[in-house]
Amino acid sequence: MSREIGELLDELIRRRISRRHFISRAAALGLSVGAIGAIISACGGGGTATPAATGTGAATGTPTAAGSATAAAVTGGKPAADQTLVVGVQEVPATFDPAVNWDYGGVVIEPHVYEGLMRSWRGTTESILEPDLAASYQISDDGLTYTFKLNDGIRFSDGNPLTSADVKYTFDRVKTMNQGPAALFVAMDTVEAPDPLTVVIKLKNRFAPFLGAVGSPWGAGIVNSKLVQANEKDGDMGQAWLRDHGAGSGPFLLDTWDKERNQVVMSRNKTWWRGWDEKPHLDKVIARWITEQAQQRLLLESGELDMAVGLTPEDFDAIKQEQGIVGEEFLGSRMQRLWCNCAKKPFDNVKVRQAMNYAFNCDTVISGVLNGHAAKMEGVFQKGLAGWAPATTQYNFDLDKAKSLLAEAGLADGFDAGEMVWLTGFDWARASLEVYQGDLAKIGVKAQIREIPYPTYFEVINDPATTPEILLGGGLGPDYADGFEMLYVAYGSDNVPFDNANRFKNDQVDSLLKTAMEELDDTKRYALYKQIIDLVAEQAASSWCIQLNDLIGRREIVQGYEYSFLFTKHFFPFPQMWKAEA
């Protein structure tokens, strides 16, 4: 390291200069972005760290209903000459084919290239479902037929008209290819196109959240059937071509996907069928997938990113101190679950599972590990989804209660719980399990902590014998805004082992889920949800302890941003966004 860099680093450590000053000076001296990021990460960056909590106090930093901005944002100003927005996101997609992609990485791009019959991105604390390509819809009395009338004059980005034939082709393609998003449409029987502006969808059985599924960002984007068919190869229904090409009617065009630089460029569709008003608008969006969280902070502070959504709690707290940067925090829609393998002894005993729940110190994890950037869950699925209710049984940290329950289960001296697993990329889960491991030891329960890569996880959970005894990590998020999906995938026995990897099975829960799925009256359906919630909680199917906050950093010059509860931090409402002059 040169003498100049050494002196500069000393100034940073002594907090005589800001991170931004260090970044600009180090870059001028020839250091690469990667090297700068490594140095800052190693020395702690001179930021303000929140010490780990040692008690069990209430979580801090819970965002308000409308989100929490930590600095005054620019509310207007003269539009910048260059309307190019650069955003840094974290979850890397494998494809942008709307019939294949089923991850959050695709949400940055797909809802802007493709539009659906319905849309549900609006709403910061809950999702608002509204028509999109559909001008109106009707549901038959028996709940089995949905008739949509399309807006007149819709055109794809290549100028071809969008008709009901394209809607039929889209959903038939999803069903035929039968990949991830197809799970949202298993109730769909046929799609008919009696005239160019009418779509008739018939279901095999009543499915109350169907409109929500049609408004999902996954699988429901309508594709240009002529363009896709023209690019089919070896009967793949255009899958290879759609991996990195667009065929939609949306406000932006998918220009390039540079896999070496791991970035996508979109440009504004100036002939968008909805048209553009005279307000300022973005002309170009560059989405950069940056998996290293320290890099996101570094690039945001240096001005290479306009927004970053992959920040750690520590980095988020630090960027709030930087001039010209706004930190915004919202309650996210992803549920973090701690679960025990119900197929392995002694976790097949409900008293043991209850004891394990009482031994997890959720408050300390939130305040100490996550710096307060999360909320303790009171129900068995995410607050903000339709039908949410707090569970009657609440598991607050109580080691005496846990020890008493173990004694009732014949395990007064404790037991060896086996392995506690966390998934690569979710470091907060590792630290949380370390807290848990220490508390379990106090009641005589031993456990070893192990990390597994995310792809390996799916291989491991296929067999009850190889499924870990305890797991914390990942994040179960909704595809649509009704709580039914979360109840079904997490606690229905039909979904073993995918999201019900802990192999929970309860006949009464399964029966209630079937009834709820077909109940079209919201009030009656939510009452059924409440019964399921209370059963699942009492049976300690899993610990639904944490609902992480989404942490978003943006430069003040970025205007028009609106958080989407359902689509999470990975969605940006690009059509209403613009940049002001610095």
Number of helices: 18
CATH class of the largest domain: Alpha Beta
Described by strand count, sense and barrel closure, the largest sheet is: 12 strands, mixed
Low-confidence stretches: 13-21, 40-74
Could you say what the CATH architecture of the largest domain is? Roll
Number of separate domains? 3
What's the shape?
A: globular
Helix percentage:
25-40%
Please, what is the average pLDDT? 89
Distance between the termini: 34 Å
Return the CATH topology of the largest domain.
Dipeptide-binding Protein, domain 3
Percent of residues in beta strands: 15-25%
The counted number of beta strands is 20
What is the gyration radius calculated from CA atoms? 25 Å
Structural class: alpha+beta
CATH superfamily of the largest domain: Dipeptide-binding Protein, Domain 3
